[in-house]
């Protein structure tokens, strides 16, 4: 009988498929990735940053329903379909929660929503503000499935849009860490001597500074903002990658296939990139999965401290910061929901890291 020999990649893929939690975590991360990309398509509030405020209905419980009156501003905003899908709709209309309404002659009379069974102020508006001269097309029932935050914004929409920051910061930070870490670790491990001593000194100095303190310092130097946080987190995570790559290269640079490459006259750049790095990527992949989780936690901590993503941008960490005091005010879900989102995404990356470690273990 002929048995086809399987490559190490195929064996690793087979072992990974047998790991239930690894496959489940991969599917969950893929789902969060799709949600983060198409957040504005899925969110009930598809305005930019899901920032439609209704102060009259702030801090309402999940499942809250209210009648919403939309008054057009008559302003025409040029915006492409792709821009709406990926960056949200530029909204110039006014939304007013109302408790009741009626049409009298050429005017729409409505009562604004008031909490705790109170009667809201009664106001009126001319029907020529509405295209169909009835106002009916601009009045609809709105359901807030996760409730509303302290500004009356749809919490579900904010959670969906906030997934974008937490998810993409992992990719950007890990990419920056890989580029710097692979470069520095390769130089230190392959050339050794003074080059190794200098790079290890830089690594040790960077390693000795508390991560959060270093991120805060970089963020303050670069300024507050979306991309500044991504860069700051990435610049603090490269040392782990560099140490792993250095150790791996030291252990393999004297092996026979590297000696053969030198004998064939290949230059150092080709030997490192074509022969050494492809054979030591297994531990780098595992540590990158752990760095994904670390980046999400660091960004959440920065947003909680107020130096991460800035308002009105939605961020899970900022949502916890805005509502952590509601835990003792009888509405803990305002902080628990984004907290559970952070926990589940971090757990998924940690589980997939463990699954990759087992699958790529050549001794297993």
From TrEMBL:
Residues 163-353 form the ABC transmembrane type-1 domain. The keyword Transport applies. CDD domains: TM_PBP2. One of its GO terms (cellular component) is plasma membrane. It is found in: Cell membrane. Keywords: Cell membrane, Membrane, Transmembrane, Transmembrane helix, Transport. Its main location: membrane. GO terms for biological process: transmembrane transport. Gene3D superfamilies: MetI-like. It comes from the Bacteria. The chain crosses the membrane at residues 20-43, 165-191, 198-220, 226-245, 276-298, 333-356. It is a multi-pass membrane protein. The keyword Cell membrane applies. PANTHER family: D,D-DIPEPTIDE TRANSPORT SYSTEM PERMEASE PROTEIN DDPC-RELATED (PTHR43386:SF1), OLIGOPEPTIDE TRANSPORT SYSTEM PERMEASE PROTEIN APPC (PTHR43386). Belongs to the binding-protein-dependent transport system permease family. This is Peptide transporter. It comes from Pseudotamlana carrageenivorans.
């Amino acid at each position: 009988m002929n048995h086809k020999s399987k490559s190490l990649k195929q064996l690793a893929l087979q072992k990974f498929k047998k790991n239930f939690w690894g496959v489940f975590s991969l599917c969950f991360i893929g789902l969060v990735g799709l949600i983060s990309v198409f957040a504005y398509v899925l969110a009930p509030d598809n305005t930019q940053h899901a920032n439609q405020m209704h102060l009259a209905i702030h801090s309402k419980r999940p499942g809250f329903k209210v009648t919403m009156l939309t008054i057009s501003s008559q302003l025409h905003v040029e915006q492409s379909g792709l821009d709406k899908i990926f960056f949200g709709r530029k909204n110039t209309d006014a939304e007013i929660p109302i408790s009741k309404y009626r049409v009298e002659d050429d005017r729409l009379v409505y009562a604004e929503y008031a909490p705790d069974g109170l009667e809201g102020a009664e106001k009126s508006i001319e029907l020529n503000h509405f295209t169909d001269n009835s106002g009916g097309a601009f009045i609809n029932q709105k359901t807030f499935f996760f409730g509303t935050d302290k500004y009356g914004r749809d919490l579900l929409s904010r959670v969906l849009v906030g997934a974008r920051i937490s998810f993409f910061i992992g990719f950007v930070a890990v990419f920056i860490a890989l580029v710097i870490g692979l470069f520095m670790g390769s130089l230190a491990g392959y050339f050794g001597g003074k080059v190794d001593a200098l790079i290890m000194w830089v690594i040790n100095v960077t390693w000795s500074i508390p991560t959060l303190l270093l991120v805060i310092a970089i963020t303050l130097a670069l300024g507050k903002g979306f991309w500044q946080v991504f860069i700051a987190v990435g610049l603090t995570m490269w040392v782990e990658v560099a140490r792993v790559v250095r150790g791996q290269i030291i252990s393999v640079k004297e092996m026979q296939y590297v000696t053969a490459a030198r004998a064939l006259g290949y230059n150092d750049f080709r030997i490192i990139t074509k022969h050494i790095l492809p054979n030591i990527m297994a531990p780098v992949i595992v540590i990158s999965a752990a760095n994904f989780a670390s980046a999400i936690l660091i960004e959440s901590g920065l947003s909680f401290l107020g130096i991460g993503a800035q308002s009105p941008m939605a961020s899970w960490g900022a949502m916890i910061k805005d509502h952590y005091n509601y835990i003792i005010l009888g509405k803990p879900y305002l902080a628990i929901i984004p907290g559970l989102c952070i926990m589940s995404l971090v757990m998924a990356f940690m589980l997939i890291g463990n699954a990759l470690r087992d699958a790529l273990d050549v001794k297993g």
